[in-house]
Design goal:
mainly alpha
């Protein structure tokens, strides 16, 4: 996966995680019944799960191309902290930034030195 495609796809999938969470909280706050708030919470978590699975796949394919297989683990950690451990803020953002930064760093290309002429 080319670096520009990686960055664009990752941003396209990462930005909705913030919007979905914000809109979910706004609807829950405006709604008064506990049952509908619970249903909205489940729907928000399912949409977040879909976004994080997509981010994991994008990071996996990028990591496979550049030789960093561990790159897919950062969106998984971010998803756990965003969906399960909601009370710990900023971890998902840090994990997504780590994914982007490490996914953009290209491994150095090994160059072989030209053979010295023998005398």
């Amino acid at each position: 996966m080319h670096i520009i495609i990686f960055i664009l796809l990752f941003f396209i999938v990462a930005i909705p995680t913030y919007v979905i969470r914000y809109l979910g909280f706004a609807v829950i706050i405006s709604d008064t019944t506990v049952e509908s708030a619970s249903e909205i919470g489940v729907a928000v978590n399912i949409m977040l799960l879909v976004c994080y699975v997509a981010m994991m796949l994008i990071a996996y394919f990028r990591g496979r191309k550049i030789g960093k297989g561990y790159l897919a683990s950062f969106p998984v950690i971010a998803g756990v902290f965003d969906i399960v451990l909601v009370f710990i803020p900023f971890v998902p953002t840090v994990m997504m930034l780590l994914t982007l930064i490490l996914g953009c760093i290209q491994p150095p290309k090994t160059q072989t030195a030209p053979a010295k002429p023998t005398e």
